[in-house]
């Protein structure tokens, strides 16, 4: 909660500390107890004939004051607690009934807390009660309402609230302008944001740069990258000298429209001007190269980051890894993956699955990659993530091609345990490799496993098994297997070779008969 409160402090200007303790009765009541004052006076929203008292109308909220911060945070916490057990209408009734204010500062505290707690409708409703309290809104009040409308995504009302404040002679501080400019830009209303920027006038260097950055980001967002680039160049040599965020905003716009080369030039220019690049700036460039199908240049940027002392983060590596896999640079991708893991960074699980599949398919020609695929595969399982069906299937097939049959059987059983629908090609490949390796019994067990889990073996599997059983002289098993296939409506191309077998070959192992009985 502290972070959300802290972001609101700059919206308001300095003030004297408030001597009011705001407390809430969570059980359907909320009250504000006033401290000792020279004139003890209370006021309720529900009062009909208020007694006139002296009101403070100057901008006197100090959100740098520790006591004020804690008071606001406490009120926010209590409002949120109240919202869990009451509807917005009930909350409004409670606040109207039991809230008392002595100064406009008290009122601003409540408005600010409601905005932070995202109770925006209640904030607007409470604001309409201000005249009945004989309170005059000050600059802080108008600033809070501007922010409230921005949070509600009602930019017309936010702009109107600014106009009202200006008409009354108030000049909101720079942070209020920046909130409004940023909100307008996020919603693509760049022209309106420019109007607000012009009204902002001469503020501090930092505030002007922040406002410029919002406009640069807004222009890039709506595709007006050339205008953003022109504005950026116009900032150079002025009091609003562009910073790292200025350059990053324009670089992002360039990368999104396929002009990553220009973004790289802008990066070099920024460094030449003494701007220290950060990881966000580099990640923007990495994403651009990935989109444009230039993943190897992304790898170069990774090395460049290290040269500048800006070490890549998870986003950096995952972006490069995604680009390499998307454009089928598998060998380089496994190198980037190993470097990432070596640094203790966690790769994206979906990217790891993609890496396994690409390595498996590539391993049919480059055998050394199967081990890498197995290591990545095991890391996915150890992370607690569920391996998707496609990755398991490709892994089983690759293990079969690499003659890692025991591991293939383990992963096949894992597929069944996870309830995946079984692809016949995976079973066919495994049965074929088991037969090639002289492991006919394991091949028959695999066939039984397939049928036991709702699968229907293919003619190819029956042909391979009957062929191997014929060659081993196991006629009874071959005959029973042939019969099981016919019962399923499958007519194998191969038949048991009864006419060439000796009488003693008709005896079969009892275990084999049990397995084949399951098929029948």
TrEMBL record:
Family recorded in the similarity comment: Belongs to the PPR family. P subfamily.
Organism: Psophocarpus tetragonolobus
Keyword terms: Repeat
GO molecular function annotations of the record: mRNA binding
InterPro entries (alphabetical): Mito_RNA-Proc/Resp, PPR_rpt, TPR-like_helical_dom_sf
PANTHER family, per database record: PENTATRICOPEPTIDE REPEAT-CONTAINING PROTEIN 1, MITOCHONDRIAL, PROTON GRADIENT REGULATION3-LIKE PROTEIN
PPR repeats: 138-172, 173-207, 243-277, 278-312, 313-347, 388-422
Protein name: Pentatricopeptide repeat-containing protein
Parts of the chain that traverse the membrane: none
């Amino acid at each position: 909660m502290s972070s959300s409160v802290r972001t609101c402090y700059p919206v308001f200007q300095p003030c004297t500390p408030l001597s009011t303790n705001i407390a809430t009765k969570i059980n359907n009541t909320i009250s504000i107890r006033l401290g000792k004052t020279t004139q003890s006076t209370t006021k309720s929203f529900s009062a009909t004939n208020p007694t006139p008292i002296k009101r403070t109308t100057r901008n006197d909220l100090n959100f740098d004051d520790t006591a004020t911060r804690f008071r606001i945070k406490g009120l926010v916490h209590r409002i949120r607690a109240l919202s869990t057990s009451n509807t917005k209408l009930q909350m409004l009734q409670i606040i109207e009934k039991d809230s008392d204010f002595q100064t406009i500062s008290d009122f601003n505290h409540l408005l600010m807390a409601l905005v932070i707690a995202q109770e925006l409708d209640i904030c607007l409703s409470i604001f309409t009660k201000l005249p009945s309290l004989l309170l005059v809104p000050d600059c802080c009040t108008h600033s809070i309402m501007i922010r409230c409308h921005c949070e509600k995504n009602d930019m017309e009302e936010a702009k109107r609230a600014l106009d009202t404040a200006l008409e009354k002679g108030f000049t909101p501080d720079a942070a209020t302008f920046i909130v409004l400019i940023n909100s307008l830009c996020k919603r693509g209303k760049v022209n309106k944001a420019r109007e607000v920027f012009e009204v902002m006038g001469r503020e501090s260097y930092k505030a002007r740069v922040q406002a410029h950055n919002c406009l640069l980001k807004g222009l890039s967002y709506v595709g007006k990258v050339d205008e953003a680039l022109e504005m950026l160049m116009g900032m150079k040599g002025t009091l609003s000298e562009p910073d790292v965020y200025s350059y990053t905003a324009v670089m992002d716009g360039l990368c999104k429209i396929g002009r990553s080369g220009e973004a790289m030039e802008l990066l070099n220019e920024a460094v030449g001007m003494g701007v220290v690049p950060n990881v966000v700036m580099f990640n923007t460039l990495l994403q651009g190269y990935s989109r444009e199908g230039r993943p190897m240049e992304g790898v170069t940027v990774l090395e460049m980051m290290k040269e500048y002392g800006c070490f890549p983060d998870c986003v950096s590596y995952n972006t490069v890894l995604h680009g390499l896999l998307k454009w089928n640079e598998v060998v380089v991708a496994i190198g980037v993956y190993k470097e990432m893991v070596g640094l203790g960074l966690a790769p994206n699980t979906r990217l790891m699955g993609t890496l396994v599949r690409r390595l498996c398919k590539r391993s049919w020609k480059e055998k050394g990659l199967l081990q890498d695929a197995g290591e990545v595969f095991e890391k996915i399982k150890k992370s607690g993530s569920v391996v998707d069906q496609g990755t398991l299937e490709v892994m089983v097939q690759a293990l079969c091609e690499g003659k890692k049959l025991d591991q293939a059987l383990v992963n096949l059983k894992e597929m069944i345990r996870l309830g995946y629908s079984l692809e016949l090609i995976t079973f066919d490949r495994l049965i074929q490799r088991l037969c090639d390796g002289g492991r006919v019994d394991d091949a028959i067990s695999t066939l039984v496993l397939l049928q036991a889990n709702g699968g229907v073996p293919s003619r190819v599997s029956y042909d391979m098994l009957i062929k191997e059983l014929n060659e081993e002289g196991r006629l009874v098993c071959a005959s029973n297997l042939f019969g099981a296939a016919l019962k399923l409506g499958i007519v194998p191309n191969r038949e048991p070779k009864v006419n060439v077998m000796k009488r003693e070959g008709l005896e079969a192992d009892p275990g084999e008969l049990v397995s084949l009985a399951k098929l029948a």
